[in-house]
Amino acid sequence: MQKVIIGINAIDFKNPKANHRQKIAIDVLLENKPDNIEVVNFCFADDIIPDYCNELFTQYLNRNSKEEIGNQRPLPYIKEIFDALSVIKDAYIFGYMNSDILLTKDFFRYFEEDADAYVFSRKEITDVDSVKYFNDKRYKFVWGGDTHAGADAFFFRREFWIEHRDLFHSDLILGETEWDTVYRHMILRKADKYTHERALLHVYHDAKWNVNSIGGKNNTKIWEYVRDNT
């Protein structure tokens, strides 16, 4: 089986509920993934990493949007993650997903499809308190939870990324609005074959985008340029 690398950005959220959701998601990922799947956690060298992340291989990031452009939060640049994934030995398919995403055992079959890129959106579910609870499907779907507009995971076949990486802007900030819009836009236009599925699960919680943050304005400006010129 070909090697697939999943990159995440697990951190200490300083919020017990958020840390709990992240812990369960990582536990589920490590339990459900087949042997050909490897997981890499990307973070800054000075990040406080929760103890439950010790099982993950950690790779440190260089670019910090707070230091570079004065962003309110020290968020990474997403392309740095994809570039780092692309040089991991024997990586056939690689990608990034948010650290609180839950994957069923059946999810990994998507990587058997012949595609240049894979875009995954999510469905919202009720709270999950253990791996067994999740795998036994004891959760419920949240009404309207299958309409989330964004995408929470992107994967690329290595050859496609190497050929087209210059089309993906280097200054898009992870965790701010519109970075996923840009990535989906470029994939739909440049990939001959792609998978686009609502196949991720996510515990519902209140969330607000700060589109007026420095990072949000940065990403919006990039998206408007890409939208108008590709």
Task: Describe the fold and architecture.
The chain is globular, with a radius of gyration of 17 Å. It has 230 residues and is of the alpha/beta class. It has helices spanning 16-32, 65-69, 78-86, 131-135, 158-164, 179-190, 214-229, and strands at residues 3-8, 37-43, 57-60, 91-97, 101-102, 117-125, 153-157, 194-203. Helix 1 (16-32) links the parallel strand 1 and strand 2. 31% of the residues lie in helices and 22% in strands. The longest helix is centred in the first third of the chain and has 17 residues, at 16-32. 34% of the residues are buried. The protein has an 8-stranded mixed sheet with strand order 3-2-1-4-7-6-8-5. The protein has a single domain, classed as Alpha-Beta Complex (Spore Coat Polysaccharide Biosynthesis Protein SpsA, Chain A). It has 7 helices and 8 strands; from the N terminus they run E-H-E-E-H-H-E-E-E-H-E-H-H-E-H.
Quick structural overview:
It contains seven helices and eight strands, in the order βαββααβββαβααβα. By secondary structure, it is of the alpha/beta class.
> How far is it from the N-terminal to the C-terminal residue, by CA?
36 Å
Summed over residues and divided by their number, the pLDDT gives a mean of 95
Strand order of the largest sheet: 3-2-1-4-7-6-8-5
CATH superfamily: Spore Coat Polysaccharide Biosynthesis Protein SpsA, Chain A
Helix count from the secondary structure assignment: 7
The domain tally reads: 1
Q: In the CATH classification, which architecture applies?
A: Alpha-Beta Complex
The biggest sheet, with number of strands, parallel, antiparallel or mixed sense and barrel status, is: 8 strands, mixed
